[in-house]
Design goal:
The chain is an alpha/beta fold and about 280 residues long. The protein contains ten helices and six strands; from the N terminus they run H-H-E-H-H-E-H-H-E-H-E-H-H-E-E-H.
């Protein structure tokens, strides 16, 4: 073999070593947050660098799932809660830092009163029932959305769980409840306007970071990947500011049927894309 022929092999070996070192560094960072993180065991074909830090999901299809089974809609919502648990657990192993789930929109108040009451009761039970698991997994819980209109018992359960998990240093589970992105941006605009009116803030100093810091999600990274189930091709007033550069993945799976394999498919789809953020691909 000539020296000229040997050079590419040496370069390739160095690249491989560098790639393995980067992967090890990423996994080490993940494990500082979530000791069980082992993305290469689940997705050996996806470099750990390509695992999204923040995944947002529009959980759609609970009612349709129940109808297909010949069951009342609430059975679909209960089955959907089981899917939530499975996805939370899998995100922990994959090293995902933040999981944000669209649980109840402002528009959902238009549903029949008995369904809304049952949903609120189910949510309260979920909050109470998941505390021990979240503490074991070192998961911090937060809720985003307007508090006005939510039942007092639900708010009390939310506040207890947020307080109990506030010191947890692992992944973040964020539930969007009584949430609408237009309402969120409106609330941020009002808060900024109050600061301007009081002289605390100059209009000339308002920039994108100012707006972001007044959103419900302040302190969280923007989603890298948005998943929507049940085949619907819309974002439904969800995280409109935050998903400006997120990759979108739509699956026909109804939410109660969504499992780890479906999450893996979404991440593979994401990992195969080149994100340029408005620039040119390298």
């Amino acid at each position: 073999m000539t020296p000229a022929a040997a050079a590419p092999a040496s370069s390739s070996g160095a690249d491989l070593q560098s790639d393995e070192a980067r992967a090890a560094a990423v996994v080490a960072r993940m494990r500082r947050r979530s000791p069980e993180a082992d993305p290469q065991s689940r997705l050996p074909d996806v470099h750990p660098e390509r695992i999204p830090r923040h995944i947002a999901i529009i959980m759609d299809g609970n009612g349709r799932w129940a109808s297909k089974q010949g069951l009342p809609r609430m059975f679909g919502h209960r089955a959907g809660a089981a899917a939530v648990r499975a996805v939370i657990e899998e995100c922990g192993v994959l090293g995902v830092e933040v999981l944000t789930l669209y649980s109840f929109s402002i528009e959902n108040w238009k549903r029949p009163e008995e369904e809304v009451e049952a949903l609120m009761g189910l949510y309260e039970m979920y909050l109470e029932g998941e505390r021990d698991q979240l503490m074991r997994k070192n998961i911090r819980f937060v809720q985003i959305g307007r508090r006005d209109g939510l039942p007092k018992m639900v708010l009390a359960a939310v506040d207890r769980l947020m307080a109990d998990t506030a010191a947890n240093t692992g992944p973040t589970l964020c539930l969007a409840v009584n949430y609408g992105s237009r309402a969120e941006i409106t609330d941020a605009a009002r808060a900024i306007a109050r600061k301007v009116a009081s002289g605390e803030l100059s209009p000339d100093d308002i920039d994108e970071s100012t707006v972001a810091s007044h959103l419900y999600t302040a302190g969280l990274p923007d989603p890298d990947l948005l998943i929507r189930t049940a085949g619907e091709m819309r974002v439904s007033n969800y995280l409109l500011w935050q998903i400006s550069y997120a990759e979108l993945h739509v699956t026909n799976k109804l939410w109660p049927d969504f499992r780890a394999a479906d999450l893996h498919a979404a991440i593979r789809d994401y990992a195969g894309r080149r994100r340029t953020f408005g620039g040119l691909a390298g």
